[in-house]
Amino acid sequence: MTVIDVHAHIFPEITREESRIISADAGPWLRVHGDGTGMMMSGEDEYRPVTAGLWEPERRLADMDARGIDVQAVSSTPLLFGYGADPARAADWCDLVNERILAHCAGAPDRLLPLCQVPLQDVDLAVDTMTKAIASGHRGVHLGNHVGERYLDRPELVEFLAHCGNEGVPVLVHPWDMLGADRMGHHMLSWLVGMPAETQLSILGLILTGAFERLPESLKLCFCHGGGSFAYLLGRVENAWRNRDLVRAHSPRPPSEYVSRFYVDSAVFDPRALRLLVEVMGADRVMLGTDYPFPLGEQEPGAVVRGCAELTDADRARIFAGNAREFFEPVSP
């Protein structure tokens, strides 16, 4: 059975000097140690230790072979987004990152699908950057779920998503810069609590503000990490929509009717959670995602999908590859 991983990261070999394109003091770069390990850096500060699969395509492909992954969609590590920078500098930065992602994937174009990033703080520049990237070979766009206080339901960001839908460019949305960081500075709670909350917040924003009503049906949108806490709390949201006019003021249909407007990945790490996710979303809206190569990702890709007894073989085939094939249908330059 073919296996396509839609959620896998890259941090290209960017030097300290190159990082000054985005920030003189705190630009992200990669310190490579030469022994298969490295350190993601933010200026002079160490951010996170990492391993070579994050930047070496040969190591990535070897890991894919060992773990039974046929194809990966390769997207930047969120530290690279650069949303807080001056838009012109951010556009130059995104061009650099996108070139490095393309180079990383170039040796195995049938196995590595490059996803570009854009300066989302300026919609016109974001459109221009994405247009160049798609023309050069990128297969989709990777976005953070918000830009400062602006979430994806803001009119200007809805405009960008609509452009993606009209152009047939698939969009992968990843949580980042998590809310409540001042209360979750220990035990990786920003990742364990903040990330699911950020993702649910983004999905509900698109539903309850009526943004999905303004977006084309052609938009292919996928939220990482199983859609966060959305599936588990949908009943709570549905109850609120039915009983409070404040909740349903801008959303003409029950929240559950919008699950056909987006995809989620399968990175929920428990067969019981996956069963609920598939029950809520449908097997045609879930795609395998591992969060490679980070320790909080799925270490045995596909094990949860295989271990969910309620799934049929047809369900597994869709989750492992069928849905991703449809999602990443070639984009015409």
From TrEMBL:
Signal peptide: none annotated. GO terms for biological process: secondary metabolic process. GO terms for molecular function: aminocarboxymuconate-semialdehyde decarboxylase activity; hydrolase activity; metal ion binding. It comes from the Bacteria. GO terms for cellular component: cytosol. Keywords: Decarboxylase, Hydrolase, Lyase, Metal-binding, Zinc. Its EC number is 4.1.1.45. Residues 4-328 form the Amidohydrolase-related domain. InterPro entries: ACMSD (IPR032465), Amidohydro-rel (IPR006680), Metal_Hydrolase (IPR032466). Pathway: Secondary metabolite metabolism; quinolate metabolism. The keyword Hydrolase applies. SUPFAM superfamilies: Metallo-dependent hydrolases. Gene3D superfamilies: Metal-dependent hydrolases. Monomer. Belongs to the metallo-dependent hydrolases superfamily. ACMSD family. This is 2-amino-3-carboxymuconate-6-semialdehyde decarboxylase. It comes from Spongiactinospora rosea.
